Amino acid sequence: MLVPAPFFKKIDHLGIAVASLAEALPRYEALLGRPCEHIEVVEDQKVRAAFFTVGESHFELLEATDPTSAIARYLQKNRGGVHHVCVEVTDVAAVLAHYKAQGLRLIDEVPRMGANGKIIAFVHPAATGGILLELSQPAGDP
Question: Tell me: the pLDDT tens digits for 67-84?
């Protein structure tokens, strides 16, 4: 059974794993023609994230702050690149419940706080055919 379309609002961002923000920021600033808007440490995910707005979506550059983080593990297997796709939804908990009822493999069964105060959860790549999917709900949304 499909998730009702009104749950999905837009592609929020592409999460891009980088070995070093110091090296990646000038490259992305040149590529996108704009400066990085801000950098945030997300302790729970053990990353530093740098944000660029592109239209209604964002690029999120992710640098590991700990060798045990998901980004560090990703970079051990890959040179970097797109780590995940994030879709903004109206209700992360409801989408997770729907996916769980369908038997899809989840990384997070309960939403948690992410960067920029958003409510997030991750769906395992096994459920999507190989792409890590992040669900995101803006801060302040019920």
Answer: 999 999 999 999 899 999
